[in-house]
Design goal:
single chain; about 110 residues; alpha+beta; Alpha-Beta Plaits; four-stranded antiparallel beta sheet; 4 strands; about 25% helix; about 35% strand; globular
């Protein structure tokens, strides 16, 4: 394979990953539910915001308090987001999923 072909393959892969589509952002915070809820209200005003949920895991309590995840959904890439102090964040592209070949057992048609 030539160098030009390698570069073309690499550019194509990057372009596919950067195409607009559905994205999800997770912000993890311990012990600061109010901060994450306020962040969700702030982010709701940004372009591409589709919705949010706050998840709580009391079984994951640790030194910093109980664990909360702010899950936000976006149309297109996630914009730069300011996280609350002490929070961690990750953005993920939503990939196409295969439809089940037959309904789950007990599912209504």
């Amino acid at each position: 394979m030539t160098q030009a072909a390698n570069q073309g393959d690499h550019q194509g892969a990057g372009q596919d990953a950067g195409q607009p589509g559905a994205w999800v952002h997770f912000a993890e915070q311990r012990g600061n539910l109010a901060g994450l809820q306020a962040q969700a209200r702030t982010w709701a005003a940004l372009p591409g915001f589709l919705g949010a949920e706050v998840l709580h895991s009391p079984d994951q309590a640790g030194e910093g308090g109980e664990l909360y995840l702010l899950v936000t959904r976006w149309q297109g890439a996630v914009p730069p987001l300011e996280l609350p102090a002490g929070a961690k964040g990750w953005a993920f592209a939503v990939l196409p999923q295969a439809a089940p070949s037959q309904p789950a057992q007990g599912a209504q048609p």
